[in-house]
Amino acid sequence: MGLEPEDYKDLRRAVDLLEKRRFTARLTHYAGRPIEKLMTTLPARTSDRVQRVVRFTVRRLLAVAAKTMGKGRHRRASLRFHKMAGGVSGAVGGAFGLPALAVELPVSTTIILRSIADIARSEGEDITSIECRLACLEVFALGGRGTAANDADTGYYAVRASLAKAVSEAAQHIAQSGLTHKGAPVLVRFISQIASRLGVLVSEKVAAQAIPVLGAAGGAGINLVFMRHFQETAQGHFIVRRLERTYGQEVVRQAYQELRRTGRS
Fold this sequence. Notes:
0% strand; mainly alpha
């Protein structure tokens, strides 16, 4: 069963959104310096602090996703509103630097999560379902990157496959027990997998925001880059999921991989 022309066009757009590593390039362009050089300017202890804040943030996002994302009506996603809200929170990070990270990151990522849910709903998802809400959290891992050694093998479907077991177990646990057992191994494993990939991008974001001349305005701009990256990742992800509901995962996966290979060649 082949895809209808309009759906094939949508899938091509999804591949473009999901397979191009745009965040680092955009951040480099915005900051005016290569991210690799910016990373070397951060104190050694900063990396550990970033990872602690990221893990706390993902736990908070899981609680938000499990409890407070309403159903709403099917409509076009409001991307601009969430970008504006994310820019405001980024201004705080830019003005106060690393000390503000523990406050700014949970706020900005919660805004991003709301935008992701808005995008999911616009693609026909039922965001009252646990499965969809965890798919929203998956976007933070899909938009993140692995280490340089393994990043070449982390295409969209490869990352989804690596997360599949953790997502399934977390969904089952939340459906049966909610978040009452926060230390449950399945939830710890899910949080760790999301945080490990998200943490790479957050470290790059922190490095860019640490440039003294950027200040509050620069922090707002960097957060807009951060927001846009995850909005585009969400758009690609939920286009794919919509097509999978129509044609089946295997048909869409094969068409996706062919488009990915064509694009690389």
